[in-house]
Amino acid sequence: AMELHEEYEVYTAADGIEGFKSSLNSIPDLIISDIIMPNMDGIELCEKIKSNINTSHIPIILLTAKDSIDDKETGYESGADSYITKPFSSKLLKSRIHNLIMTRRRMSEYLMKQVQSLQYAESGGVEDVDIQADAKEAPCACTESLPDDRTEVTKNLTALDRQFLDKLFEIVSDNIDNENLSVGFLADKFCMSNSTLYRKVTALLQISPNEYVRHVRMEKAVELLRT
Fold first, then answer.
1. For the residues of 161-222, what is the DSSP string, one character each?
2. Which strand (E) or helix (H) includes residue 23?
3. For the chain, first and last CA: distance in Å?
4. Higher per-residue pLDDT: 126 or 169
5. Rounded to an integer, what is the distance from CA 179 to the centroid of its chain?
6. 122 sits in which H/E element
7. Cα separation of 95 and 214, whole Å?
8. Burial degree of 148 (CB within 10 A; 0-12, 13-18, 19+)
9. How many whole angstroms separate alpha carbon 199 and alpha carbon 28?
C-alpha cells in the first residue's frame, strides 16, 4: 500500500465488511482485495461489489496464496477482473492495475463512439462485443489507439452496467427537451446520490453526466438536420 501511495490515492480497510462500506462511500477506480479475510472474504466482497449498481463498474483484483485452476475460476465467477497469486512483486501488481485502468478507458472510448453514432437507438442498447485480448491475464498493451468498432471492448461490462447505460440513454432521450434534465434529475431516476451518479457515469464514459447529455443532444440534432 505504501508503494501505491506514490501514484494513487489509497483507501484501506481491515476486512471485507469495512471494505464494502468504504467502496460505497468512496466509489474507487479499482479495488484490490485479499481472498482470506475475517467477517467477509474476498469472494463474497467481490460478489457484493459486482451486484450493487453503485459499484458494479469497479474493477477488482483478488490476491490469494492458492494457485489452482478451480480457485481462479471461483474468483472470476464472482466477478473478479484479475487474480494474482502470492508471493508477487510490486511491479506485477502495478502493471496489472495500469492494465485494468487503461482497458476501462478504452471501453469508455468505445461506449462513447456508440453514443456519438446513435448506435443505441439503432441496436437497442450496448452491443455485446467480445474483447480480443482478455484483460484478466493480458499483457499491458492498452495504450494502443482504439481499433474499429466491434473488434473489442464490452466483454467486462457487467449486466448491471449494461442495464444502467441503456436506462441512462433512454431517460436522456425521452427528456431531451426537458430544461430540468440535469445530474439531479438523473440521480432521482436512478435513486442515487448526485455524487454517486456522477462518479459512475464518469467511470463508465470518462465524461460527466452533463457532458453526456450534451453529446446526446448534439447527435440527435445532427440526425434531425440530416433527415
1. HHHHHHHHHHHHHHTTT-TT-SHHHHHHHHT--HHHHHHHHHHHHSS-HHHHHHHHHHHHHH
2. helix 16-26
3. 55
4. 169
5. 29
6. helix 119-123
7. 35
8. exposed
9. 9
Report residue 202 as a C-alpha cell: 464518469
H-helix or E-strand containing 202? Answer: helix 194-205
Instruction: Give the C-alpha separation, 57 to 103, whole Å.
Output: 12
* Phi-psi label, residue 16: left if phi above 0, alpha if psi -120 to 50, beta otherwise: alpha
H or E stretch covering 200: helix 194-205
- For the entire predicted model, the pTM comes to 0.77
Q: 153 is written with which cell numbers?
A: 471492448
Tell me which amino acid residue 146 is.
L
Cis check: omega of the bond before 87, within 30 degrees of 0: yes
State the pLDDT confidence band at 116, using cuts at 50, 70 and 90. low
